[in-house]
Each structure stands twice: as structure tokens, then as C-alpha cells.
Amino acid sequence: MQGETNIFLRGLKAAPAPWQHKVVHAGEPRRRDEIVDYEGNNIIDLVLPGGNYTPQQYRNTIALITLAPNLLAALIELAYNQQQLVGIEVDPKLLQLIADCGGPDLTPKQQELKDTEPKPQTWNNATQSSERLLG
Fold first, then answer.
1. Whole domain around residue 55: which residue ranges?
2. Which of 9, 31, 126, 134 could form a disulfide with 17 if both were Cys (CB 3.0 to 4.6 A apart)?
3. Is the peptide bond before 18 cis (omega within 30 degrees of 0)?
């Protein structure tokens, strides 16, 4: 299985990864393709499409779905490395995409602290003298 030891696949808020493609009833008219999670549980059933889809498009779609957790793990690793190792600010849209797909919140912690830190109060002697406040 591909990606079994990838640390960035752990803790995703999705079906356990990596995922696999499984063919059910191969060679029969009722052929069906499944995407299963790491534990073998069915996630998605796919049937051969009609219309203008080519066999290559169908295989590519299956590969895209199967490898989705690995793609997400690669994005997480890229964003993490940019932030932690290189110090580059990551596009907030990428961080939101990662979170929307079940990945961790990689919003920089410094920015969160900066936004929540209370600002120091300033004192204006003319308008806030003790005599004036006490009246």
C-alpha cells in the first residue's frame, strides 16, 4: 500500500488513509469499482460511466480519488515546511483548503496570539484625571 508510513496522513478528519482501489465482479457486466479505506471499509462505489468519458478518464478519476489523502498529506507537508523550516508565509486560501479537507489547522500561532492580545491602555491626563473621574 502506498503512503502507509506517511506521518502527515495520521490524524486526518476523514476515513483512515491511505485508500485503495478495489474491483468487484471484474470482467462481468455488473463490474463495479470501490474505493476502500485503510481498514478495507467501503468509502465510494463507482460504476462505469456512460456518455463521453474515455476509459483513461475513468482510470484517472479513480486514481485521483484513491490518492486524495496522499495529495492532502503532500499539501500539509508543503505548508508545514514553508512555515516552520523556511519561514515563508503560506497563502491563507491553501491553509483553509487543507482544513476544509480534514487536515489540521495550520494557521500560524503567532498571528492568533497577536490578534487576541489585549492592547495596553493609554492614559490621557487631560480627560482622565482622578479629580475629573471622581467628580
1. 7-105
2. 9
3. yes
* Distance between CA atoms of residues 22 and 109, nearest Å: 41
Give domain status of residue 71, yes or no: yes
Please give the DSSP secondary-structure letter assigned to residue 85. I
Q: Is 122 within a domain?
A: no
C-alpha–C-alpha distance, residues 79 and 8, integer Å: 11
Per-residue pLDDT tens digits for 7-48: 888 888 999 999 999 999 888 778 889 999 999 999 999 987
In a domain, 11, yes or no: yes
Taking the mean position of all CA atoms in its chain, how far away is CA 19?
A: 15
Give CA–CA dist 48/18, Å, rounded. 23
String of b and e for 92-107 (b: at least 16 CB within 10 Å)? eeebeebeebebeebe
- The structure's pTM equals 0.72
Cβ 46 vs Cβ 62: under 8 Å: yes
Residue in the structure block whose three cell numbers are 492532502: 72
Domain count, the chain: 1
CA 80 from chain center: how many Å? 12
In a domain, 115, yes or no: no
